[in-house]
Amino acid sequence: MPILIGLDIGKKRSGIARADALGIVIKPLKTCLTNELIAELKNLDENYGIEAIVVGMPCNEGFSTETIDFVKAKTEELKQVFKNSEFHFVDERFTSKEAESILKNKGVKLNKDNKELIDMYAAAIILEVFVGGDLG
After folding, report:
1. Range with the lowest mean pLDDT among 4-13, 35-44, 72-81, 97-106?
2. Which of 27, 38, 56, 112 has the fewest Cβ atoms within 10 angstroms?
3. What percent of the chain has pLDDT over 90?
4. What angle do CA 6, 52, 128 make, to 5 degrees?
């Protein structure tokens, strides 16, 4: 069964989350270096098939045009590789703060060694906003 992918694309790292095609169960999956994102997604596509990719777009005034341009450019690269997948954008405002809050509520003490957890939970929140599902 094809899956939905949520992405929190950063210049260094990107968070990846997945959901079943119905968007019922959403799971933070992993964080990878952004320059390895295409390879990570190819692996997921080979194993499951990617129906749609939902990208968090920085829409807040606090983000520079450079950041927005970077996310758009990376998304265009992804579109060239994943031609059979739909692409959608979701406002990613506050997803990192919300991810931090979720992790703290789970008892996770965030530090430099596990900061990548924020990225994959932010990706899950992006996907949750898109499908209106529950973070599981």
Report:
1. 97-106
2. 112
3. 60
4. 40
